[in-house]
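Thread: "does anyone have the structure for this chain?"

Original post by V.I.:
We have the sequence but no experimental structure in hand. Need at least a predicted one for the grant figures.
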Amino acid sequence: MGLARGAVNLMLEEASKRPFSGTVATMGRQTVYLTGGQLWCLFERFGLEAPPSFKGTFRSLDDNSLLTALGFDRVESFDYSDYEGATHIIDLNNDELPAEYHNRYEAVLDSGTIEHIFHVPNALKHIHNMLKVGGRLLFLTPSSNHLDHGFYMFSPTFFHDYFNTNGYRIETIYVVRYRPSHTEL
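Reply from O.Q.:
Generated one for you, tokens below.
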């Protein structure tokens, strides 16, 4: 699970249209495949203010640093184990999500988790329940022909059809062909 240059570019484009705020739930911890200096340049490209500490930095940043720089006040992560230091240890395959996580997040980010969850209907139900009304879902998920990666490969239309059928207002959908390098757009 991670945020490569193209994914961060899409998130910055979204932030430039409508700023992010509040608390974001991430499905798993996210590896950020950019340095602070690279992020500084992307922030400038979209006319967004990057933290001064990013400028000229050659170290990679963590997901909390990136997501708070994007405008979120708080970042909470969900995973089935504590291997990567998730905030909450929850198995999204389970039938129920504890009520304390319902209607709690202004945004939910999945950047490469749902294809690794065996019970997709439960995972989608839990993500829906986590999100506040009017919140934003950000799915950055591999689709067809991503062989030997996870349990499932989703059709590029899967998320559009699912969320449209369930009454979501879809503002932006990208189908992106990515390159093997995490640093290329």
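V.I.: this helps a lot. DSSP finds five helices and eight strands in the chain.
O.Q.: and The mean pLDDT is 90.
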